[in-house]
Specification:
Two copies of one chain form a homodimer. In chain A, strands 3-4-6-8-7-12-13-11-10-9 form a ten-stranded antiparallel β-sheet, with helices on both faces. In chain A, strands 2-1-5 form a three-stranded antiparallel β-sheet, with no helix packed on it. The longest helix of chain A is centred in the C-terminal third of the chain and has 22 residues, at about 260-280. In chain A, strand 1 and strand 2 form a beta hairpin. The first copy, chain A, has eight helices and 14 strands. Chain A has two domains: about 5-35 and about 45-185, HIT-like (HIT family, subunit A), CATH 3.30.428; about 190-345, HIT-like (HIT family, subunit A, 2-Layer Sandwich). Chain A starts with a strand and ends in a 7-residue tail after the last helix. Chain A has helices spanning about 25-35, 55-60, 135-150, 190-205, 210-220, 260-280, 320-325, 335-345; strands at about 5-10, 15-20, 60-65, 75-80, 110, 115-120, 160-165, 175-185, 225, 230-235, 245-250, 285-290, 310-315, 330.
Chain lengths: ~350, ~350
């Protein structure tokens, strides 16, 4: 078995089973002992496989930003490649669901999709807060370019952009990077968000997130962290994690991939500021960020009820069985208090 | 603010915000540096606050199993207490939802509920696999007793029993223990499971999990790990985690808390065997288990469509932004291969 998608019909959740990423049981054993006793961060010494000079080792780029015009040359500033250990792959033809007996009918699909890595900078030691905002904007443009490319394949329904920073947040490489996974199915969380947004719109004739932006910038400002011309960062009203922060456009927009140059530059500045604050406040914490944007496909452009955002979550607590079992999170940092703290983190001028 | 429940209306998820468990930002900073660099397991040296002799420090027990008849005496074998850092508490009267403006209307409840710790053994150094099966049965009976007690309070709707073992699985104490959290709301995962089970029942006029049991024991046995008279352990068809294992009653039963003596003894044996196999195979890994049983309230007794089970998940991989953002999991261990491995782990006679 190479890779497949399976549907957990009790939990309504798609699972990607990827034997290519697979390990023998003995690999898990080693990993586990290491992790239970303490989880040494991967070494930070370069050069690594994401550094310039390793282009041919990594395979052809799917997208890059550089001054020159030769693909796969080492003069890139941002480079996108297929993940070397992909969860899904475009090498599948037939997307007919199959199953196993009557009980798991239509619960199986080939592991079709795209799993890509965005190498955010040629510099082995720099992270988003240390890059110029104009460079961060190029990382965001790489996300846009790839999402827009996926829009052309009608088999792909959903794309998740995400970043794992630090071993505890799921990263295996320290060289600054993020990832995209595009799938032929719509995942559970996205279905829930789209349904909630649609229901709110039906009830109120307004976009839920537009109402949140208005509420948090005008009525109650206690969860507002920072803002600029086009964006705000807020602690969400009901955050799952301590200091969870949403970066939200002030203007209504359902598709991140369609925003223009001025908005991308403003977003890059606020993203850089937010991650810089977290690095200063929490001592370079592991974190994830995930982009929540509309589904793939032209019919999902300019939705009046969905409003995209970027969800940034430092790993400062360890979810356990309660969260896993119930889907309810215990958060020991009230968002109003967390926002006040992050609002007041002092940043030296750069 | 002491503790409150908030509803994330976009993700349809309840969050517990507990300032009692709260930390100052500087606490997070220390925690983060420690964790990012490596996560030292809490010291395993006894005695700790869960050891006999500390009964008065921990406060009155809510339940215990002992030979004597004096509450809070140190001769217990299993002891249940209120969590010292509770996510919720019974000290709230009014359960009327409140909100904040129009956008967060009815999204707030006081942090009402019960958060208890089941100290599974007086021995500081023993875990479930090292306890006699008859003692493990007493731990399960403590779960039953507390769930049945919560049934008497009509304000409580949902109870999650769970165990965190090891720092990476969310445990802060090494002394073997599990926890219960009872809430006045029904959480997202439970709503999804109940809806799926109901829908399957409507379509097929049979219980989904009864069909899974029949399929996995008779048609396709490749995910079957172990079985005894009343229970099986299986790798689920679409597991979120490598080596995730479900312990499922072979007989139809919606309420764990109502099963009888013979069934509890059989469950204890299979639970002990499963955790022993994981300890041997993966070198004492961190893990969670969570009990998925019916909602609280007599009207949920003997449901024909819901079937309880215990979900055991060793922490051998680190979910990242993809899982957080999409709700879809990447699992690099096909369940058939994982089940074959666990089925063949050799256990010395005990």
């Amino acid at each position: 078995m190479a890779s497949e998608l399976r549907h957990d019909q009790l939990r309504q959740r798609w699972i990607t089973i990827s034997d290519k990423r697979g390990k023998r049981p003995s690999d898990f054993e080693r990993m586990s002992s290491q992790r239970f006793g303490g989880s040494p961060e991967a070494t930070n010494r370069g050069p690594c496989a994401f550094c310039p000079g390793f282009e041919l080792v990594n395979g052809h780029e799917t997208f890059a930003i550089r001054d020159g015009d030769q693909a796969d040359a080492p003069d890139w500033r941002v480079r996108v490649i297929v993940n070397k250990y992909p969860a899904v792959s475009m090498d599948y033809g037939d997307l007919q669901p199959t199953g196993e007996g009557a009980v798991f009918d239509e619960c199986r699909l080939p592991g079709f999709g795209s799993h890509e890595v965005v190498i955010e900078t040629p510099s082995h030691d720099l992270n988003i807060p240390e890059l110029p905002a104009s460079h961060v904007a190029e990382v965001l443009k790489a996300y846009q370019a790839r999402i827009n490319w996926f829009q052309n394949d009608p088999r792909l329904k959903f794309c998740q952009v995400f970043k794992n920073r630090g071993n505890r947040a799921g990263a295996s490489m320290t060289h600054s990077h993020s990832q995209l996974i595009a799938l032929p199915v719509i995942t559970h969380n996205k279905i829930t968000e789209l349904d909630s947004a649609q229901e709110y719109y039906n009830d109120h004739k307004r976009c839920m997130m537009c109402d949140v932006v208005e509420h948090d910038t005008q009525s109650v400002r206690s969860r507002l962290i920072d803002e600029n011309e086009f964006f705000i960062t807020i602690a969400p009203f009901a955050p799952s994690f301590p200091y969870e922060t949403w970066l939200v456009p002030k203007f209504h927009s359902s598709n991140f991939e369609s925003i223009g140059e001025d908005e991308i530059q403003a977003m890059a500045k606020l993203l850089k500021l937010t991650l810089r604050k977290m690095d200063l406040a929490f001592g370079y914490p592991p974190y994830n960020y995930t982009l929540q944007t509309a589904l793939l496909g032209k019919e999902h452009f300019n939705s009046s009820h969905y409003h995209w955002y970027l969800d940034i979550a430092p790993h400062l607590a360890t979810p356990g069985g309660f969260e896993m079992g119930s889907g309810c999170y215990i958060n020991c940092m009230p968002p109003e208090k967390g926002a006040e703290f992050l609002r007041n983190v002092e940043i030296e001028p750069q």
